[in-house]
Amino acid sequence: MQRNSSDISAPFRSVSRRRFIAIAGAVAGTAMLPGGSVAAAPLHRWQGVALGADASIQLAHPDRAAAQRLIDDCVAEVRRLERVFSLYDAGSTLAQLNQNGFVDEPPLELIELLGRAGDISELTGGAFDVTVQPLWARYAEHFAQPDADPAGPNVVDILPLVDWRKVEARPDRVAFAKPGMGMTLNGIAQGFITDRIAVLLKRNGIDQVLVDLGEIRAVGSHPDGRAWQAGINDPERPGKLAGTLDLADRALATSGGYGTVFDQAGRISHLLDPRTGKSAAIERSVSVLAKDATTADALSTAFSLMPDTEINAIAAQLPDIQVYVASGHRLIGKA
């Protein structure tokens, strides 16, 4: 039987956690057009939590009751997908996979997401790998000890368990090839759920939406005619921005080592390289703009573990994305 690594990692979810992206102009209410005229459709807003992160949905709609029904549908869909992808809900499909090493008759969304994850793993040479969970658990176990070596744990025996190619994913079964393997979808599931909510609203005729479920996707523009705006937090200056980006029919995801740290000194980040077991740099974050949040989420995770030369080489193959690195108090565009 597989060991449920989420039992170890759960207490570390909130350790020194800092948000990467700040939404500008996020107050709901009647939107104002340039010149002071009132827009036809006011903004309606939901705030809550999704996959353990602060979340919000903003949509423009002329009817408050209809907007609320749509928001309720969105929240219900978020909760349904959490029961598939959550690492910390013992009853989720993912938790059962980690507990038993397999799951039969998996939800279609899990198969779809693993396919998307495999594509990103292939593209990034394994820098993105959903089977990194045993490595994460080793770090969590290590730093839970009062006399933990500040240099971090020995991970030589764990690295052979981290390999996305050792996951069998069929419509009728998902299974690990080796005992002791585990999976986390935290580097891609938020983006996937964000896309599902954006598509749900678009299918219902809503064409001015900002979905922020840890990753962000904008549909159309802000009701006042401008683009939605997001500020990228400065990794080295809490509460300060390294820069801002406009969003219109685009998705944005940001990953950085400073988001969560294992050690009291704040030197060992939660972003671990599946290929080496090493921690990502604390003082740097990577933002990706893409057409969909799933791609942006996974690529920002992988790029956080890569030098600029490797980021540029991959970004050059993907004309629909833009990459920005926040370092030295600036937001720098790549490739």
How many helices? The count is 8
- Can you count the beta strands? 14
Low-confidence stretches: 1-18, 25-39
Strand order of the largest sheet: 2-3-7-8-11-12-13-14
Please tell me what the overall shape is: globular
Rg over alpha carbons:
20 Å
Overall pLDDT metric: 86
Question: Largest sheet, described in full?
Answer: 8 strands, antiparallel
Helix content: 25-40%
What does this entry look like structurally?
It is a single chain. With 335 residues, the chain is of the alpha+beta class. The protein has one domain: T-fold, CATH 3.10.520. Helix content is 28%, strand content 22%. A hairpin with a 2-residue loop joins β2 and β3. α2 runs antiparallel to α6 and α4 packs across α7. The N terminus is likely disordered.
Structure keywords:
disordered N terminus; 335 residues; 8 helices; T-fold; alpha+beta; single chain
Short description:
With 335 residues, the chain is of the alpha+beta class. It is built from eight helices and 14 strands.
